[in-house]
Amino acid sequence: MSRSAQRKRHKQAEEDQLPQDQNPPPDEQAATAADGEADPLADLAQRAADLQDRLLRQQADFDNIRKRLRREAAEAGDRAVARFVAPLLIEMDNLEHALRAVDGISLADFVAGIIMIRDNILSAFANAGVEQVPAEGIFDPSMHEVVATVPTPETPRGTIIESVRTGYRLRDQIIRAAQVLVATPPPQDATAAEESAPEGGSTDEG
């Protein structure tokens, strides 16, 4: 074998021993690149879907809480009414007993029984925080209702003279205004006008 042939064989052997190209085919490279880069629109759509799901869950939780609070408030109100009415039912029983026994007792005993029932009802009101509106002193439009005025020279204008119907309040809330009679100055008649006018006329000459 000539030297030229030996050199060719040696060169071919060296080329065969070189490492093969490790890069994947072009199609696989494109697929790998697509997988490595996230689609912005798809990512945004997924985030929007997740947000909507969370909002729906929170809305459902809020509705459940609101319904529960409304139910609990109604139940608490019913219990409060029941506690308030319970002692009044006892007084209703006492009133019915008094009415049935009216023929067998004296008028004084009947009146005493009615007064006792009234006082017990007022005590039940007080235990619930309900009290009578004061109906004395100067008229207060926030808790008094004038049903009539009474002309009187002795009492200052706006002074309550008499209570016609008792008012009640729950702490600072007026349940029912007190109906009252209020003093007003009397109208001046002719005599009062003459008395208040300055003295005049002619004097006798001697």
End-to-end C-alpha gap: 191 Å
One letter per element, helices H and strands E, the order comes to: HHHHEEEEEEH
Provide a count of the helices. 5
Gross geometry: elongated
Helicity range of the residues?
55-70%
Uncertain residue segments? 200-206
- Rg over CA atoms: 50 Å
Count of DSSP strands: 6
* Mean pLDDT across every amino acid position: 80
Strand order of the largest sheet: 1-4-5
**Fraction in beta strands:** 15-25%
Largest sheet: 3 strands, antiparallel
SS class: alpha+beta
Structure in words:
Among the domains are: 83 residues; 61 residues, Nucleotide Exchange Factor Grpe, Chain A, domain 2. Helix content is 56%, strand content 15%. The strands form two sheets. A three-stranded antiparallel sheet has the order 1-4-5. A three-stranded mixed sheet has the order 2-6-3, with no helix packed on it. A hairpin with a 2-residue loop joins strand 4 and strand 5.
Give a summary of the structure in a few sentences:
Helices cover about 55% and strands about 15% of the residues. It is of the alpha+beta class and about 210 residues long.
Topology overview:
Elements: H1 3-17, H2 26-36, H3 40-100, H4 107-127, E1 130-132, E2 144-151, E3 160-165, E4 168-170, E5 173-176, E6 178-184, H5 190-196
Parallel strand pairs: 2-6
Antiparallel strand pairs: 1-4, 3-6, 4-5
Which features would summarize this protein structure in a list?
alpha+beta, Nucleotide Exchange Factor Grpe, Chain A, domain 2, three-stranded antiparallel beta sheet, three-stranded mixed beta sheet, 6 strands, elongated
